[in-house]
Amino acid sequence: MVSQTVELLKNEIPLEQESVVLAEDAVNGLVLVDIINGFCTVGAGNLAPRESNTQISGMISESARLARVFCEKNLPVMAFLDSHHPNKPEDPYPPHCIVGSDESNLVPALRWLENEPNVTIRRKDCFDGYLGSIQEDGSNVFVDWVKKNKITTLLVVGVCTDICVLDFVCSTMSAKNRGFLEPLENVVVYSRACATFNVPLEVARNTKGALAHPQEFMHHVGLYMAKERGAKIANEVLFGAAGKV
Fold first, then answer.
1. Is residue 33 in some structural domain?
2. Is residue 48 part of a domain?
């Protein structure tokens, strides 16, 4: 029944994806959103998967591959890590990714990024990495990163497609459109390196405070809404002499 519903959704709101070629002669930046144990490692916390999940494992694999390429090319990478203070809940979700816990650390496949000179790690305490980059003095770590590196195309990957990834893309697109992120021109969401979680309806009905969250359905919706905001949705990302973004 769920698969039939997903197919109906995709027919009603079809999502055109494209192959994106990143120009070798331009500055491309990679943003990894919340690829941490608390959301991706089986049994790691309240919001971690309960069993191995193909969409999540595929997202990790593709994100790690891209991160290697960006580091080999010495291109700028920013990794957002969800990190919450225990006295500041994030409704409607239970406590998760508490500061200092292993839940808020990168998954094992990406821990090597912590030692790469071209990588900026930003711990955030909210859904949206753009808002989570605001400092007490009003400056914004993400905005400064884009401007300092003169990034023209931003590639976004991570979790969750329809929550933290989407929120970050929406804020970034609005800021770009208002001229706050020059010289940024393009925001690309790579669908194969994004994932979300799965809470079937029958599980939600029997879990106090839980909301149904069918994985394939919400992944599609998240990508579709990102495209509605002006982001490009890619099902393939390549590097080439002449970029096609």
1. yes
2. yes
The pLDDT, as a whole number, for residue 9 is 84
Q: How many domains does the chain have?
A: 1
Token digits of residue 231: 């982001």
Q: Which of 129, 122, 127, 132 is nearest to 90 (CA)?
A: 127
Residue 86 three-state SS: coil
Q: What residues pair up with 36 in beta bridges, in sequence order?
A: 106
Q: Which helix (H) or strand (E) holds 168?
A: helix 164-177
Residue 26, number of CB atoms within 10 A of its CB: 16
CATH number for 139? 3.40.50.850
> Considering only CA atoms, which of 182, 180, 168, 152 is closest in space to residue 226?
168
Q: Is residue 245 part of a domain?
A: no
Whole-prediction pTM value?
0.94
20-41 tens-digit pLDDT: 999 999 999 999 999 999 999 9
